[in-house]
């Protein structure tokens, strides 16, 4: 592993820091923390931590010794000074005299000794940093080190690999107990360059930022070199027969497999009929992942546990392992997948009950759904309540697969015990890293919106994203869809889609399924208006309008229903039908007639797929400023009627102008109304001729 230290970059951070009032030590602490944090081989998503012992003035102007330590769950890759809260060092060190301390009390004492009382909580591994005497302390969960230490004979192996430069600390759950044990062991080997925390990670230290960092890189390099030299065989553990079988079988695509896996890994709500707890997926299929999922001993190695304890809050302790999804045999795959997923949840519940009883029965069970799914022949999925969480689970799963593979290449992978994993998974301080989240109403759901670059489409995509859904914005104009998606932020996906072309629609829905894992809500919104007196209009115009305003909805709904049925968790089809569908305007036949057919289409979907839990509803909106009602049209129509533009736009029973956001809220209402199907919601400020009956 190469050092990332560049003198010029280090000095630039020091110079920038000086302008912001940060001293050299703190600036370099930030620099090497970022270096460590930006390499996934060392640290992933909030794991790992660093510290600096220095002096600073407190609120009363008195200079005191402080420990600046990474705050809990903060991302090292983009750390700022505020991510290294300062705690008075001497009271922390006095705690060493205690035999034990409750978590709540420890956090309380830490907080009471913060120099800035508004800082976030210091890392759960803070006490280890406080007890060690060194100015700079770095701690990572380097994958190569884990491959060496997640072994039955780790202690002996470490002596060989690290040449006695690291003292060996047996496994204890991170926290006060581990910190006390670690300092005792350090004091017996005070000349070491760092510590191995068995089954957990590595600590290096030094008098300056560079020394602690260089030692980390040197030690991780020793682990990497050892693995490279001692690999039993490149294909160790992969029985040639099995790898060949996976390679020879024609495997289904991720787009076809994901909805099946996602549906199987959803949970019916306990009390609300029709509601599901759903997860979003992230797919990975790099060479290392494929080598791992195609191992003949996948069952054994995949169920052996995590490579470092804090991964458990993101990936759970074990992944769900599926079978090879053979092409043409998806129905068999789906039924086995559901059984495997149910077995996973049952196993998780038993694990919880067994261990909760052991610790006194006061823990609250987390959902029993997998966070990593391995699919031989295809790759792996990370799962989460949001796309962001799914990506984190997938990133960790990838490093885990590499770590376990390398551990097996030089020996036998061994994790911490089930009880130890449970104690981490259900440790309140670990769970606190995830933050206190109250789920938004559409959390875990995936919504696709057509015509999403238009005014109503964009407002709808924004409303759904604000309600917690992951959104896919489909439009003829991909650039415009991209701009709308960027404005929404997060993981909003922009896709080119021509709803008049069946292959374009099916390609777009394949991409949604591959990207997010499936789809739960579709807002079929794309449309355009044509005019002409119906007795004289060119048939070509009528056909064009039917292609877009009727068949477009049909193609979108059909593609969505295929995915929804593969998931088996219901779904919601929403159609934008105009008031023309109900209350035709003169010379608007070419627009209104296919829209009336789309209204019938919605009812047919409600009728045919209610049995699958798929709801179909429509919104009947009128007079919205949009691509179909441009400022020029508003000007000419209001003039023709002798009205001001304002009176024209609010010419309805309520006398209120209707906005795209009002239509978006109507779609959102339908997405949430689990007992409503075949319904039309009118959003027009009141037009009795267009009222539904
Ligand atoms: Zn750690």
Q: Which descriptors would you attach to this protein?
A:
693 residues, alpha/beta, seven-stranded mixed β-sheet, seven-stranded parallel β-sheet, 26 helices, binds zinc ion
Explain this structure:
- There is one protein chain.
- By secondary structure, the protein is an alpha/beta fold.
- It is 46% helix and 14% strand.
- The chain contains 26 helices and 20 strands.
- A seven-stranded mixed beta sheet has the order 3-2-1-4-7-6-5, with helices on both faces. A seven-stranded parallel beta sheet has the order 16-15-14-17-18-19-20, sandwiched between helices. Strands 10-13-12-11 form a four-stranded mixed beta sheet.
- Strand 15 (470-475), helix 20 (478-488) and strand 16 (493-496) form a beta-alpha-beta unit.
- Helix 1 crosses helix 2 (24-37) and helix 11 (254-264) crosses helix 22 (539-567).
- The longest helix has 29 residues, at 330-358.
- Zinc ion (ZN) binds next to loops.
């Amino acid at each position: 592993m190469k050092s990332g230290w560049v003198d010029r970059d280090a000095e630039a951070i020091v110079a920038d820091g000086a302008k912001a009032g940060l001293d050299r030590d703190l600036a370099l602490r930030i620099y090497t923390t970022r270096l460590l944090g930006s390499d996934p081989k060392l640290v992933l998503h909030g794991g790992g931590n660093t510290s600096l012992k220095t002096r600073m003035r407190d609120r009363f102007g008195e200079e005191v010794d402080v420990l600046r330590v990474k705050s809990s769950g903060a991302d090292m890759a983009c750390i700022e000074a505020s991510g290294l809260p300062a705690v008075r060092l001497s009271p922390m060190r006095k705690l060493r005299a205690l035999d034990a301390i409750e978590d709540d009390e420890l956090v309380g004492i830490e907080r009471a000794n913060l120099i800035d009382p508004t800082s976030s909580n210091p890392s759960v591994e803070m006490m280890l940093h406080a007890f060690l005497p060194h100015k700079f302390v770095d701690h990572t969960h380097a994958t190569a080190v884990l491959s060496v230490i997640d072994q039955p004979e780790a202690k002996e192996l470490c002596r060989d690999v690290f040449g006695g430069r690291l003292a060996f600390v047996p496994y204890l759950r991170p926290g006060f107990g581990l910190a006390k044990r670690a300092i005792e062991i350090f004091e017996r080997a005070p000349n070491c360059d760092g510590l191995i925390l068995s089954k957990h990670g590595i600590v290096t230290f030094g008098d300056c930022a560079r020394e602690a960092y260089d030692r980390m890189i040197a030690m991780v390099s020793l682990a990497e070199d050892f693995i490279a030299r001692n690999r039993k065989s490149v294909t160790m553990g992969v029985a040639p027969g099995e790898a060949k079988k996976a390679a020879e079988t024609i495997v289904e695509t991720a787009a076809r497999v994901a909805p099946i896996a996602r549906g199987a890994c959803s949970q019916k709500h306990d009390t609300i009929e029709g509601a599901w707890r759903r997860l979003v997926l992230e797919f990975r299929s790099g060479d290392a992942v494929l080598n791992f999922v195609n191992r003949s001993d996948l069952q054994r190695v995949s169920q052996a546990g995590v490579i470092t304890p804090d991964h458990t809050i993101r990936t759970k302790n074990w992944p769900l392992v599926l079978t090879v999804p053979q092409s043409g045999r998806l129905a068999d795959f789906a039924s086995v997948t559901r059984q495997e997923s149910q077995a996973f949840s049952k196993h998780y519940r038993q694990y919880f009950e067994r261990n909760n009883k052991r610790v006194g029965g006061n823990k609250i069970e987390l959902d029993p759904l997998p966070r990593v799914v391995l699919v031989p022949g295809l790759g792996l999925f990370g799962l989460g309540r949001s796309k962001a969480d799914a990506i984190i689970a997938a990133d960790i799963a990838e490093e885990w697969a590499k770590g376990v593979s390398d551990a097996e290449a030089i020996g036998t992978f061994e994790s911490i015990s089930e009880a130890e994993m449970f104690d981490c998974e259900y440790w309140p301080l670990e769970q606190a890293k995830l933050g206190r989240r109250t789920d938004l109403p559409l959390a875990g759901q995936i919504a696709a919106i057509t015509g999403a670059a238009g005014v109503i489409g964009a407002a709808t995509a924004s409303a759904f994203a604000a309600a917690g859904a992951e959104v896919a914005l489909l439009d003829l104009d991909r650039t415009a869809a991209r701009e709308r998606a960027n404005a929404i932020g997060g993981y909003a996906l922009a896709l080119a889609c021509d709803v008049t072309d069946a292959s374009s629609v099916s390609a777009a829905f394949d991409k949604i399924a591959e990207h997010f894992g499936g789809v739960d809500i579709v807002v079929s919104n794309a449309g355009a208006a044509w005019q002409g007196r119906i007795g004289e209009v060119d048939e070509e115009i009528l056909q064009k309008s039917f292609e877009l305003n009727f068949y477009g909805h049909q193609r979108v709904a059909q593609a969505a229903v295929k995915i929804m049925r593969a998931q088996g968790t219901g779904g919601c089809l929403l159609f934008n039908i105009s008031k023309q569908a109900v209350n035709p305007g003169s010379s608007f036949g070419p627009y209104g007639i296919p829209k009336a057919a789309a209204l019938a289409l919605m009812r047919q979907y409600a009728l045919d797929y209610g049995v699958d839990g798929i709801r179909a509803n429509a919104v009947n909106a009128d007079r919205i400023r949009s691509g179909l009602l441009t400022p020029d049209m508003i000007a000419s129509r209001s003039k023709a009627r002798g009205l001001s533009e304002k009176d024209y736009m609010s010419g309805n029973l309520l006398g209120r102008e209707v906005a795209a956001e009002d239509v978006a809220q109507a779609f959102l209402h339908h997405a949430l109304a689990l007992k409503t199907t075949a319904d039309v919601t009118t959003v027009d400020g009141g037009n009795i001729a267009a009222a539904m009956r």
